[in-house]
Design a protein that fits this description.
- The complex is a heterodimer of chains A (243) and B (503).
- Chain A is 36% helix and 21% strand.
- Chain A is of the alpha/beta class.
- Chain A has 2 domains: 1-42, no CATH class; 60-242, NagB/RpiA/CoA transferase-like (Rossmann fold).
- In chain A, the strands form 3 sheets. A 6-stranded parallel beta sheet of chain A has the order 1-12-7-4-2-3, with helices on both faces. Chain A has a 4-stranded mixed beta sheet with strand order 8-5-6-9, with helices on one face.
- The longest helix of chain A has 31 residues, at 2-32.
- Chain A is globular and about 65 Å long.
- Chain A starts with a helix and ends with a strand.
- The chains are: A alpha/beta (243), B alpha/beta (503).
- Chains A and B meet through α1, α7, α8, β9 and β10 of A and α2, α3, α4, β1 and α8 of B.
- Chain A: Residues 65-242 form the LUD domain.
- Chain A: InterPro entries: FTHF_cligase-like_sf, LUD_dom, NagB/RpiA_transferase-like.
- Chain A: Pfam families: LUD_dom.
- Chain A: This is Lactate utilization protein C.
- Chain B: Residues 303-334 form the 4Fe-4S ferredoxin-type domain.
Chain lengths: 243, 503
């Protein structure tokens, strides 16, 4: 306890130093720019994408088609499924086919309702952050499959978006060998511009610690430009579009 | 480990690079591929110039109001629970980073790619106090094993082939690894997994910082930046003071320009926005997060009409891939942290000491390909000219070039003198011409003739023929077809009478 107090004291000292330096830093910028400090939000006439772009929207079928094309060309896999029952079957079949022993999933009602535990009696399925005594990073690191729900997806770039929370670990979409992302059809948008402004509207205090856009399997071209899949993150990624 | 060899001039370092045949081929192959990827991605996307212009406007606006945006970024990041620090110089930034590392009693730090930490030679400073700093980007890991620095901003190990890489990784593994990309990458994945899980601190750079929410954004393909910001208990981010954009809405423009310009991707595999340390109830993410905002010469560009736009740079590397000089000599020849056209301008600008880097601005052909490639339209080729001018004004001009230019103007200033010199040349070259070519590397022709051949002065020069040509033209004009002449005269008469013209 004493040690953590000194650590807090040290952090407080750092903050005091930072605050006093902050003023000098900002004043120096203003003086180099040759004007007084700007304290009010300046008018920002060119915020976001060009106007013509903001009106661009694909139909639902086009969104599915373009998302599929883009995600596949980045090395990912896509399946279009009728309902969550079909998603359960798909995951169970893949787990059997690839002999997945360890599965970690987010603690979400939709995934709870899948009933993977019953469908895969031989696999060890853990639910993120459901037991505070567990080492959850280790559970995710050893997992063959990570199963998550997408909060958003964008067809134009072939991306899924996942937001972190107490029940939604950042590790679940990162550490397992195979990642399975379920995208409810209504969350599939055309552009990033239909997703990003939501975070401005939500405002600082409502944002999660981690917002991650994922556009295929982990890759690198660092060795002789030869594409390698699965360098640090999942090497196999399935997007299941449901609905 | 990551000390930059800045000995000698760009020309000397380029001699090393040009003599390394593999390097030249590899650099050309990779840059060609990236350049074609960018070309295709920007054409496929359409309206590319509108997007570039929008990107430029957002960057211009942010830099013009940098005190406002950086200040609210700081306040918002602090409200998110981030410890924000300011560093005027490289030494300040290193001190803050080392203080945190020592306070945390860190043994190992896992790092994702950060050009700012390269700029600070931070790994070197960490090693001096006994902390192992591990680069986790595959290419960066390879060059760290080799004890080198990145030669390309996007593909740092561009200058190594798979056999060289297999040798380095085999030594690391203590067993022989086949020179096969999958085997080599597989080894690095396994090795670094352990490092991520045991590291005390994760260290990152920052592609963009969002002022209105105090968030930081990272673009990457491998997942190592996500590892570094998810697994260790402490995160330290180093960011250049100019990395700011106002909002998430503006991020769409940067997310459109950066990956397409860097690698030709529609989006990098991962784009992560991190807003503060883990929430207390979260199951992962860092418990403590520090952001060090680094000036280190950047603010020198503020208010400078010729160089302020340098701060608009989004570090995509497109100007490197477009540059004919970079494609020939590779990144190390530039001798600084940043290479290619952006490096040729940024390095002397950040260092304030134009003199020491006086030759780097000459490593460019001023062709303007860098400007064409730049997603935020930075006029790099103009800046290179400004830099050369300032260099000359500061008395750092190339002595031999100046003398040569003075001699040139003396000779060209009088036609008699020029004729005399040419005739002398015709005589003099008899000593060096072989089969109509001059291949000697003596005297002023050394630089040129190392890679090219100077043609000999012909027996009859253009100047010798000029009298004849001039006469032919004059005679020719006199011999104009009478029919043509009469038509022209009629036309002139018609015009004088105020007839209808073409306006």
């Amino acid at each position: 306890m004493a040690e953590s107090q000194t650590h807090q004291q040290w952090l407080d000292e750092l903050e005091a130093a930072s605050r006093s330096k902050q003023e000098k830093f900002m004043n120096s910028i203003a003086s180099k720019l040759g004007r007084p400090r700007v304290m009010e939000a300046p008018k920002h006439p060119f915020r976001g994408a060009p106007d013509f772009w903001n009106n661009f929207e694909w139909s639902q079928e086009e969104r599915v088609q373009h998302f599929t094309e883009n995600f596949k060309s980045a090395g990912g896999h896509v399946a279009r499924l009728a309902d969550m029952e079909a998603a359960k079957q798909f995951i169970a079949d893949k787990a059997n086919e690839m002999s997945a022993k360890y599965i970690v999933r987010q603690n979400q009602a939709e995934l709870e309702a899948l009933g993977l535990e019953a469908a895969l009696p031989d696999a060890s399925i853990s639910v993120w952050n459901s037991d505070p005594a567990q080492s959850w990073k280790a559970r995710a690191a050893e997992a063959d499959f990570g199963v998550v729900m997408a909060d958003y997806a964008a067809a134009y770039t072939g991306s899924v978006t996942v937001l972190s929370s107490k029940d939604k670990g950042r590790s679940v979409s990162l550490l397992p060998t195979v990642l399975i992302v379920i995208i409810p059809l209504e969350r599939l948008k055309t552009r990033l511009g239909e997703i990003l402004p939501d975070f401005d509207r939500a405002g600082r205090a409502s944002l999660p610690a981690g917002i991650h856009f994922i556009s295929g399997p982990s890759r690198s071209a660092d060795i002789e430009n030869d594409l390698t899949i699965g360098v640090h993150g999942p090497g196999i990624v399935y997007s299941l579009i449901v609905g | 480990m990551s000390t930059t060899g800045t000995a000698g001039t760009v020309k000397e370092r380029a001699d090393l690079a040009l003599n390394d045949d593999f390097l030249r081929k590899a650099v050309r192959f990779t840059t060609e591929r990236l350049r074609n990827g960018k070309k295709k991605a920007s054409e496929d996307h359409g309206n590319w110039d509108d997007w570039r212009e929008r990107g430029r406007q957002i960057r211009l606006h942010t830099i013009a109001h940098l005190d406002y945006y950086l200040n609210i970024f700081t306040e918002n990041a602090r409200a998110n629970g981030v410890h924000v620090h300011f560093a005027d110089t490289a030494a300040d930034a290193v001190k803050v980073a080392l203080d945190i590392a020592e306070r945390k009693q860190a043994k190992t730090i896992v790092k994702s790619k950060s050009m700012v930490t390269e700029e600070l030679h931070l790994n070197h400073h960490l090693e001096k106090i006994g902390i192992e700093a591990i680069e986790t980007d595959l290419g960066e890991y390879i060059i760290q094993l080799a004890g080198e620095t990145p030669s390309h901003i996007i593909i740092p190990a561009i200058h190594k082939n798979r056999y060289q890489i297999a040798d380095l990784l085999s030594a690391d593994a203590g067993e022989t690894l086949a020179p096969d990309t999958t085997v080599l990458a597989g080894f690095v994945r396994k090795k670094l997994r352990e490092k991520f899980l045991e590291a005390d601190i994760g260290m990152t750079g920052c592609n963009f910082a969002i002022a209105e929410t105090g968030s930081m954004v990272l673009f990457e393909n491998e997942g190592n930046a996500r590892m570094v910001t998810t697994v260790p208990k402490t995160q330290i981010t180093l960011m250049g003071m100019e990395r700011i954009i106002p909002s998430w809405t503006d991020l769409e423009v940067m997310a459109t320009l950066l990956p397409r310009s860097a690698t030709g991707q529609k989006l990098t595999v991962y784009m992560s926005g991190i807003t503060g340390p883990r929430r207390s109830e979260d199951g992962d993410g860092p418990e403590e997060m520090h952001i060090i905002i680094v000036d280190n010469g950047r603010s020198l560009q503020l208010g400078d009409p010729e160089f302020q736009e340098l701060l608009n740079c989004i570090r995509c590397g497109a100007c490197l891939n477009a540059c004919p000089v970079y494609r020939h000599i590779g990144g190390h020849a530039y001798g600084g942290t940043y290479s290619g056209p952006i490096g040729a301008v940024l390095t002397p600008s950040l260092q304030k000491n134009v003199g020491e880097w006086d030759d780097i601005a000459n490593a460019s052909s001023l062709c303007g390909a860098c400007y064409e490639a730049c997603p935020v339209k930075i006029p790099l080729h103009d800046m290179l000219v400004y830099l050369r001018r300032r260099k000359v004004e500061a008395g750092h001009g190339n002595k031999i070039e100046s003398i040569g230019m003075k001699g040139f103007s003396a000779v060209m200033g009088g036609s008699k003198r020029f004729r005399t010199i040419l005739n002398l040349g015709k005589l003099g070259q008899k000593l060096v011409v072989r089969n109509g070519e001059i291949r000697t590397k003596l005297g002023p022709l050394k630089g040129w003739n190392t890679y090219r051949v100077t043609p000999s002065i012909p027996k009859k020069t253009f100047r010798d023929s000029w009298g004849t040509i001039e006469e032919e033209i004059r005679n020719g004009l006199q011999e104009m077809d009478p029919a043509v002449r009469s038509r022209m005269e009629a036309a002139v008469k018609n015009r004088d009478k105020g007839g209808h013209g073409h306006g």
